[in-house]
Each structure stands twice: as C-alpha cells, then as structure tokens.
C-alpha cells in the first residue's frame, strides 16, 4: 500500500516534467499543417485569379489528400515502429541467452559511463544476470532507448492527426463556401485563419511548455510565409 | 587504447541495431507526403475537369506551401524540443542540489524496477551522489529519457524535409508542365507517380528494416487512397 502510494507520488512527480501528452502532440501536428497548407493554397490560387469554386475544389481535395497521407502514413509508421520494437526485443532476448557475457559487458559499459566503478556496478550486473526478464527490459530501455509501444496508439494517433488536419483545413476554406467572389472570400479567409493561427499557436505554446505569445507569433508567421510562397509560385506559373 | 577499441566495438554493435539515420528519416517524411499530396490534388482536380494550367498552378502552390509548413514547422518544433531539454536540464540540476535525497530515491526507484535489491543498488546511488555531473546525465537519460539535442539538427532537419517534399512533389506535377490536356497529363502522372511510390516505398522499407515489398505496396496504396479521396471530394464540390 505504502509502495503504491510512493509509486504514485513518484509518477506524478515525473509527469509534472511533461506538459504535452501524445494526443495533444498529434492534434498539434494535424492542426498545424491543416491550418497552414490549405490556407496558403487557397490564398495562392486567389492571387492567380481563380474563382471561389476552383479554390474550393482544390482546397477540399487537398484537405482530403493531406488527411489520408498524414493519417494513413502515420498509422503505418507507428505500426512499423511497433514491428521494429518486437524485432529488437527478439534479438536482445537471443543475445541474452547466446552471449550473456557480451550483454553483461554492455550493462557494465552503460553504468561506467556515469563514473560508476566496477566494484560498485558488479552487484547490479549480477542481479540482472539472475533475472532474465528484468535484464531484457533493462537492455531495451537503457541500451536501445526503446519503449514498448501501446498497440492502440497507431490507430488512435492516425485518426487524431487526420481529424485534426481536416478541422484545421476547413477553417481557411469556410469563406469560399459562402462568398463566390474569390477576392472577397480570401480577405475573410486571411482574417479567420490569422486569428485561428494565433489562437492555436498560443494553445500550442501553453501545452508544450513554450512561451505562448512567441508560439502564437511563430505559428502565424509560418502561415504567412507559406501563403506568400504559394502566392508567389502561383503567380510565377500563371505569368 | 583497449578501452577505446572496446568502446568502438560496442558502439558499432549498437549501431547495427538501427537501420535508418535521422537524415534518412527526414527524407522519408518529406518524400512520403511530397509524392502523395500534390499527386492526389492534381488527380482530383483533373477529375473535376480543370485544365493543366490550373492543376499546375494549384500543384506548385501546394508544394511551396507544404515545403514551408513542414520545413519551418519542423525547424521550430526541433528548436522547441531543444528549449524543453535545456529547461528540464536546469530543473533537474536544481533538484539535485536542493533535494538530493528525493533524487537519490528516484535513482533507487529506477533500479529497483529491474529487481535490483537495495544492498545491490546503494553503491551505485552513492557513486552518483558523489559525481553531480554524472548524476545529472543519469537523471536526464534514465528518468526523463531525454537526449541532448545537436544544435545543427534543427536547421538540417528542416532543410532536408522541405527539399525532400519539393522533390517528391515535382514528380507527379512534371507531366502537367509538358502536356496541356489534363486528361492526358493525369495518365502520365499516375504512371510516373505510381512507379515513384513503389520505388520509394521499397527504399523506405529497406532503410527502416521493414519488408521492402510490403512497404512498396503500402506506400503506393496510400497514394491511391489519397487520390481517390481527393478525386471524390473534388467531384462532390463540383457537382
């Protein structure tokens, strides 16, 4: 009971070190790109005198493509990381059985990097040798730096990023749904998206423990830079 | 001398565990999205009867916007991770000075998770207590799981991803530069991009240690899914 309380207190202490969970990270990834690229694409196309209809077609197509690319791509990447973990786990397990002296030397190497002397680390090495499961966990974490992936995470991450991208992407496109004249729609889109970028950038800074105002400005700046580039390239292709 | 050789052998042994460097990872990230989204956007727009000129304008604008979003976004994310590391380093340093008993208890906690008994880990804890620099490194790595970021990496990563995205994105757009009739250009784009996706997917599998043929098929499948979604959404908006 006391140990559980102690564990819980230590875990809470560790968690205070981290200010953004993995889901928040995925939302940030999705919304960051979703707010920026469709906005820039729409702004660039309006600069090239496209109609709201064309801009909407391109914008919605891009949001769909981007959501799938990021979502499905992220899902497969997470799955392949999980496969990688299992392969490394299997290899490490074989090494512990086949070449335990080499593995024990690796533990010694790891600990000696922290100025720990042989007479100090040898009891630890021997303790691990007698406990193959713990030894395996130790090697996975301290030699390879790999954490056991949660099987649910791949799908969860993919859906979060894809939905975040769609939500982010629809914000700059909304005006084009309602305002047929592209030049008017783009003005509304710029205002709407700029506000969204500043608010989102602020939230991003808050959740990642970075200065929120600076984060807001940086996020808006990326949006501005991306749309300037899109605008410039669209003009270059047209002219 | 013998120790350096031993270090070198152990490092090589560790490196064999990893089959993709960080630069390769950034190239994979950039080319994956670059091959997929501009291709899908162009295919979707051609399905909505846009001309090659419009498709090119949209495509090039999207590549510019995407490269900036990913590149600049990636750069700022890497910088903020570096800031996060420095903040955690500072906090950990303060804790080692202010509450050494709590920090020592954390080391004990970490080692006891591997079945190591107090009489076995206490010499290690005491050795760390006498060596504050090593203790700090130990806490950063084993409690927080943070690696010291290379200051060059942020810029290097951003440029790699942005350039990879541009190179990836130009592949499906090339036919539209030369073939004015969109329906003909899209056929060439599909063939060109499908080949590029398969080759790239194969290479990706090879470098990440995953089955290359399966990776090739998955990569092509994402491209197909993204363009189907873009095609469908473009038709939906048009009709």
From TrEMBL, chains A, B:
It catalyses: Fe(2+)(in) = Fe(2+)(out). Its main location: membrane. InterPro entries: Ccc1_fam. It is a multi-pass membrane protein. Belongs to the CCC1 family. The cytoplasmic metal binding domain (MBD) is located between transmembrane 2 (TM2) and transmembrane 3 (TM3). This is Vacuolar iron transporter. It comes from Sesamum alatum.
């Amino acid at each position: 009971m006391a140990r559980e309380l102690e564990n819980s207190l230590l875990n809470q202490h560790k968690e205070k070190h981290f200010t953004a969970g993995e889901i928040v990270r995925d939302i940030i990834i999705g919304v960051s790109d979703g707010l920026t690229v469709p906005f820039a694409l729409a702004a660039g196309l309006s600069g090239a005198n496209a109609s709201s209809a064309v801009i909407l077609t391109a914008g919605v197509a891009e949001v769909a493509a981007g959501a799938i690319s990021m979502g499905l791509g992220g899902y497969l990447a997470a799955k392949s990381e999980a496969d990688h973990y299992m392969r490394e786990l299997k290899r490490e397990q074989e090494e512990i059985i086949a070449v335990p002296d080499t593995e024990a030397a690796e533990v010694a190497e790891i600990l000696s990097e922290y100025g720990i002397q042989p007479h100090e680390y040898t009891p630890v090495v021997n303790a691990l040798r007698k406990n193959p499961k713990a030894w395996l966990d130790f090697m996975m974490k301290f030699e390879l730096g790999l954490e056991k992936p949660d099987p649910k995470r791949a799908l969860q991450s993919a859906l979060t990023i894809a939905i975040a991208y769609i939500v982010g992407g629809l914000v700059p496109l909304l005006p084009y749904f309602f305002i047929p004249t592209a030049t008017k729609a783009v003005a509304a889109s710029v205002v709407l998206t700029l506000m969204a970028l500043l608010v989102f950038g602020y939230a991003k800074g808050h959740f990642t423990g970075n200065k929120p105002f600076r984060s807001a400005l940086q996020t808006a700046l990326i949006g501005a830079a991306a749309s300037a580039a899109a605008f410039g390239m669209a003009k270059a292709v047209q002219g």
